[in-house]
Amino acid sequence: MMKKEVVFTLNNEEVIVEVDPKWTLLHLLREVLELTGTKEGCGVGECGACTVIVDGEAVNSCLYPVMEVEGRSVVTIEGVASPDGTLHPIQQAFIENNGVQCGYCTSGMIMSAKALLDKKNDPTEDEIRTSIAGNICRCTGYVQIVESIQQAAERMKK
Amino acid sequence: MKACDYHKPHTVKEAIDLMDSLENAKYIAGGTDIMVLTRQGKLSPANLVSLRNVSGLSGIDVQNGVRIGAGVTHTRIANDEFIREHCSALAEGAGVVGSRQIRNVATIGGNICNAAPSADTACPLLVLDAVAVITGTSGERQLSVDDLFLGPNRVALEKGELVTAFVMPAFGPRTGSAYIKHARRMAMDLPILGIAARVTVKIGGSEGGCRDAFGGDASETVKRLEAEGLSLEDVRIAMSVVAPRPIRAKRAEESLKGRTISAKALEELGEIAGSESQPRDSFRGEAWYRRDMVRVLTKRAVLTSIERAVGASSMVFPGRLW
Predict the structure, then answer these.
(1) Which residues on A lie below 8 Å from B36 (Cβ)?
(2) DSSP codes, A40-91
(3) A45 and B40: CB-CB below 8 Å?
(4) Is there a contact between B6 and A65 if contact means CB atoms under 8 Å apart?
(5) Digitized pLDDT (tens) for each residue of chain B, 322 residues in all
(6) Can you tell me the ipTM of this complex?
(7) Count of CB pairs separated by less than 8 Å, A with B
(8) Which residues does chain B have within 8 Å of residue A130's beta carbon, measured at their own beta carbons?
């Protein structure tokens, strides 16, 4: 296996890892760093279960070449709650509004929602739906998820 | 999977030199196509030459026309105020590719050079008379985007050549453009067909009269535009997924040029555009349906373009449903 070193910021901590240049960011996160909160669904950028935030933008980690994280800042679902364990308002809202059913899409949904709310604290329903259009959920029918994000936006504004 | 090395050049020259010297190498920009193809085993490059860190590929310059670096992402194009106003069709095309996650990394250069018959930025670039700036070992050349497409996934690039930017002329006032992606779903779908239009209008009567023509029933709008004597100085129509590559509907364009807008003129436009399309049956849509929708959507795209050209703001988003 070819080995290269990559240095980047992961959930606010600097990490130095040896990677095979053909890996995806998702492979590094799940198989090497054992951060399994990020899920693999389709593996080809269609379901959004693997969504993470890179330099403030939601991306599919299954399509993100691991070599490109060098020097960038990556946030995964593990980095969303406070270090003391207090849930992020988006996480809390998903629990309260039944935004979680089987849970497989949830971490990706929350990362897409966070990327939106970090930029815009009063999104329209249309903007919310556009932001999660790349995240497939087969349980909820999306209504509770949209409501969760709306409530989180309300709380984050205060 | 075989070993694959990843190279991160910082200049166009470094990228081209790497491509020239490496065995079985492939450029990778946003990677949303390449990563899928390698995973599926359809592509197994020994070397990937990344364009993400190459300087000079990621700018949008709006002096004397518009120059968009090939490395600009779809998200940036869709959100850029100048492009939304002056190249509305392109902003619309870039805004409907894949999902937010895809648009955040996928680049316009990749969308075009991958040359999928369904590429959503292709028709907008065709109607905006875009020219590709291409750099290779032997220097720089320019080629119109129309001449760049050869067929499905085939573009007129020599080995190692790199598209660095797309350049579009500055269009005068009273110009508007639109792109319509016709798909089954609102997101995460490829188009059944895509239609783009650009018009520059000449107003016979009053500008306010033309502006007020919009908002109600489409047939009323057309009647009022006819009464105002609105004609088109210039018109471009492009269609995708109706041929092996995105194409211009040149005879349809000619039929409308200089002519006063009327129901009859628009009907003929649609008919001619439909006859210029060569769609085939696929699981996304049958040929007869695609041809019929070409007829309908070219009219819509032209009317939306006119609305943007005469409107108080040159931008009406989202497009009205006719």
Answers:
(1) 44-45, 63
(2) -SSSSSSS-TTEEEETTEEEEGGGSBGGGGTT-EEE-GGGTS-TTSPPPHHH
(3) no
(4) yes
(5) 678 999 999 999 999 999 999 999 999 999 999 999 999 999 999 999 999 999 999 999 999 999 999 999 999 999 999 999 999 999 999 999 999 999 999 999 999 999 999 999 999 999 999 999 999 999 999 999 999 999 999 999 999 999 999 999 999 889 999 999 999 887 888 999 999 999 999 988 888 888 888 877 888 999 999 999 999 999 999 999 999 999 999 999 999 999 999 999 999 999 999 999 999 999 889 999 999 999 999 999 999 999 999 975 545 554 444 4
(6) 0.96
(7) 86
(8) 100, 187
